[in-house]
Amino acid sequence: MDHDVIVVLCALAVAGQAVIALMLLAGLLALVGVRGPLDSIRRIFWGYELWAGFVVAAIATGGSLFLSEIRAFIPCDLCWFQRVCMYPLSWILLVLAWRGDHRISRYLLPFPVFGAGVSVYHLLIEHGVITEPQSCSILPGSPVGCGTQWINEFGYITIPLLALTGFLLLIGFLVLASAGSGEETATLPADAER
To answer: Are residues 144 and 74 in contact, defined by beta-carbon separation less than 8 angstroms?
Structure first.
């Protein structure tokens, strides 16, 4: 049953990667003057960006706790840095979404941006692109460190890639949440605040 949970987390990551790809494509098209796809994405998530961010952060937090506490995968130093960036977002985004307070969302962006950077660095170590630092070994002489692949689902999804997917989704949702301008506020539901 534990492996089924891992497969579900990885399937959610694949779905999240598809959303990231759509957001990136819409953003690139908007840069060249085609704003229709980006406007469609904004309409889909309008008013719910913080709730979507909360769901992503809560799943990522729960998933990392499952992997370390139930599956007994030992988190490396880089995993801890990623957790520091993800865990606070779970409850902060819940409070902001509950209150409908989009104004603070831009100030949360450093958390997923830094976390995504750590995830990329972790992936580079994991795939042998760069050498694993000495500080990455959990215990002196232990074979477990930052380069250890605890999971490898669908041929490419590892724990740092799960984290990177969550951080990129959070960046997208926080940017959408903080992108409202004064003239767009009029189209929000009466109980929503920007």
So the answer is: yes
Mean pLDDT within 96-118? 91
Paired with 153 in beta bridges are: 157
What is the amino acid identity at position 126?
E
Residue 192 near residue 47, CB atoms below 8 Å: yes
Measured in residues, the chain has a length of 194
Q: What is the mean pLDDT of the chain?
A: 86
Give me the pLDDT at residue 63, please: 94
**End-to-end Cα, the chain, rounded Å:** 43
Q: Which amino acid is at 160?
A: P
Instruction: Kindly list the distances between the CA atom of residue 61 and the CA atoms of 36, 87, 134, in Å, as whole numbers in the listed order.
Output: 34, 6, 27
Which of 119-143 are b and which e, b meaning 16 or more Cβ less than 10 Å from the residue's Cβ?
bebbbbbbeeeeebeeebbeeeeee
Helix axes 2-31, 36-45, angle to 10 degrees: 140
